[in-house]
C-alpha cells in the first residue's frame, strides 16, 4: 500500500547538499516514493557498502547542525566486530527508546534486525515516564536495554520504588560519561539478577560505538569513575597531544579514532570535514596508506592496562575567575551526599561578565542549599563551590536522553522574603551595595552574600564599594566571616575610617608584581607560554568599519592602560614588571578574510595564541572580515593583565577611542588616577 497523498508528511530540507525540491519533481509527493522497493536494474548503479546509509545531524558550535554521512558497511561491521562480546540472538527483545535523530537508535534498530530479535518501539510519553518505562520493560520481557546514564539513573530511581521483576540480561550505556560510583545502589538491589552492564564510548562520526568496558559489581566499585575500556577490534584509538604525538600512560591528551568505523564526513561541509577528519599519521604502522582519523574533541588518558579513562570534553572545561574547572568533579562530590539522587553542575552567565557555577540537585529528603554547600566545602576548594543550588523534581532530558541544559531554570537571585528589613541608614546603604554587586533586585539584612551567588571576586568588588561609599576599611576576610548586612553592619561599628588606598606617586625603579600576578608568573615559568590563561572575547561588528581607525583606537587604549604594555622578567630579587614606553609600542591588528563556515575554526585557532610574557605585550586582537559590512573582532588579554571584569571597561574605552579616531580626532578622556603598577606597590606595602 500507499499513504493517501494528504497523509504523506512533508519534510523540508535545509542543507546545501540536498536537492532544492527535496528530491521530487513536483506533483503528488507520494509519487516520489514507490510502493515497492527498487530493483537493482532500476538503480543508477548497484548499491555499494561505501554508499551513504543515513545522515544524522549533530549540533555545531555556530548553531548550524552538521550532517554526518555514514555508509552502509559501517553499520554491518559494528555488529560483526562486537559480536563476541554480546552473543545477541533471536531470543533477545530490544527497545527503540531513542529518537532516530540520535545515533544510539542505529544500534537499537539494526541490532534486533541483524540477529532476528524482537524490537519494542517505546511510545514517546513512556520515554519521559521512568515508572511507565520500567513497567514496559517487565511486561515485554526486554532483554537488551540501551540507555544514556542520565536516563538510566532516573530508571534506577523508579526501580527503587518498585518490586517489578525484569528480564534484562544486557544494559549498554552510551552518549554520556558514566559515573561508575552511582551504580552501587543498582547492584545492591539486583545482587542476584543483575544484568551485564557495559559502558561504551562513541560518537556519531565513528558509527555509534568506539570502546567497550564490561562491568560487574567489583569492577564498578574499584574502577575510575570515567573508565571506558578498550577499543572495538577494528578501530584504533590514539591519545595525542597538541602536536599529534602519543601521550604516555596517565597523561591527558585528546582522543583520535581511526579504522573501519569512520563516517564519510559532513554533508556539504568539505572544509569542516578536512578539519575534523585529518590524515592518520600512524596509518603505515598498521599497514594502511592514505587513511584518515577523527578528532573527537574528547580528553582521555591511557591506563597502564591499556584501557582508557574518559575525562570529558575539551570544550566542557569552564573558566571561573581564572580557574579551569571540570563540572563533573563537583558533580561527583555532590552525588556522594546521601540525600542527593541526581545532580548536574553547569556554568551560567545570567549576569553579563559574572559566570558562576550552579548545581541542580534532585533530593529525596529535602536537603537544604546550606547543607549541600557545607558538604561541598568539605571536599572542594573555594573556587569550585557552586554559587547557587537549585532543587528539581527531576533533571530535564533531551529527546536523546541527555541532560537538557537549555531547560535548566536560572537560579533565583532574590533574597528571602522572611528576613528583616534595613533598620537604619547604614543597613539601607549596605543592602543597596549588596544588591548592586550581586545583581539582585532586593534582599534583607539576614541574606548571606554567598547564598545569593557571591564569590571571592564579587567580595573584592563589594569591599571596594563599601570602602569608597562608607569610608571605612573592610577586608575581604571580614566579609567572608560576616556575610550578612546585619552582621557586617555590627562589625563596622569598630572599623577604622578609610585612610589611603592605592595612589599615583613616585615609583621605585624596580616594580614588583601584585600577588595575583606573582601566581600567574609562577605558572608561566612552570608551564611555559600557554593559551590556558587567555581571556578572550569575540565581537560581531555589522556596518561600515574602518580597520585603520580601529587599530589606532587599540593604540590609544594600550597607551592609556599601562598594564596592557607591561612585560615581566626575573632579576636577583625575584620577579619584576616593566612598563614599556607608549611611544615604543606599536599595536598590530591583523585583518583576515574568512567565510562563515570556517569562522569558528579560525577563531579557535587564533584564541590558542601563546603570550611570551617576557617580550609580548599581554593584549592581542585579530579582525576577521566576512564581508564588506560584516566583521568579527577577537580580543585576547592574558590573565596577568586583567580578569573577566576588565573586558567591560576595556571594550568601553575601545569604543570611545574608535568613535574619536573614525572622526579623525584623538579620544578626549581624563588620565587614569592610578595604574595597576600603583596598586601592586600599595598592596605590597599594605600586606
Whole-number mean pLDDT: 84
Indicate the structural class. Answer: alpha+beta
User: Are there runs of 5+ residues with pLDDT below 50, and where?
Assistant: 1-6, 19-30
CATH architecture of the largest domain: 3-Layer(aba) Sandwich
CATH class of the largest domain: Alpha Beta
CATH topology of the largest domain: Rossmann fold
Strand count: 25
Any idea what the shape is?
globular
The CATH homologous superfamily of the largest domain? ANL, N-terminal domain
Question: Would you summarize the structure shown here?
Answer:
With 687 residues, the protein is of the alpha+beta class. The chain folds into five domains: 1-41, no CATH class; 57-313, ANL, N-terminal domain (Rossmann fold); 318-407, 2-Layer Sandwich (GMP Synthetase, Chain A, domain 3), CATH 3.30.300.30; 425-494, ACP-like (Non-ribosomal Peptide Synthetase Peptidyl Carrier Protein, Chain A), CATH 1.10.1200.10; 515-686, Chloramphenicol acetyltransferase-like domain (Chloramphenicol Acetyltransferase). It contains 19 helices and 25 strands.
